[in-house]
Amino acid sequence: MKMAGGLFSSIERDRSMNDPIGFLTICRIRETFVYRIDVSKRTHRGYRAEDWGLASPFAACELVVRANDTHIKLELVKTSNVLASSILLSMAELSQTMNLSKFLEPVVDSSRYFVCPFLVRSV
User: Fold this and answer.
1) What contacts 83, CB < 8 A, 6 or more positions away?
2) HSE (side-chain half, CA atoms, 13 Å) at 10
3) Residues 28-57: pLDDT tens digits?
4) pLDDT of res. 121
5) Nearest 5°: phi and psi at 49?
6) What is the number of other CB atoms lying within 10 angstroms of the CB of residue 67?
């Protein structure tokens, strides 16, 4: 996933039928390029961005970081529709370890890309 463009931080309460817990939006990245990657191409050192076909992203969308008292999650949003959500990351686990390696994995050939597992809602 490549992140580019302006970084806009906002605090919004998102209480809807789909999200009864009420997550706060803590960050929005307006332009994010998303790539589908073949997990079998992961080497013992990690993923290589050059293997993804960087000229042809799967989607260009907005990356939204949301949090509540217990969890944090990432969402990929295009024209107000959530395309995919990341796994929920426990705030308790994060505060103990300060380690995002279960959530985000750096790419070995670039500092501009990272890998994050998402659950696709629609294509």
Assistant:
1) 59, 61, 76, 77, 120, 121, 122, 123
2) 12
3) 999 999 988 888 878 888 899 998 999 999
4) 60
5) -60, -30
6) 16
Domain extents in the chain: 2-120
Q: How many CB atoms lie within 10 A of CB 110?
A: 14
Q: Which portions of the chain are predicted below pLDDT 70?
A: 1-21, 102, 119-123
- How many residues appear in the chain? 123
Question: Of the candidates 33, 50, 53, 56, which has an alpha carbon nearest to the alpha carbon of residue 110?
Answer: 50
- pLDDT in the model for residue 21: 60
| DSSP category for residue 18 | T
Domain 2-120 CATH class label = mainly beta
For the record, the structure tokens of 91 come out as: 């705030």
Burial of residue 63, with CB atoms counted within 10 A of its CB: 0-12 exposed, 13-18 middle, 19 or more buried: buried
| Cβ–Cβ < 8 Å for 114, 55 | no
Read off the tokens for 63: 């990356």
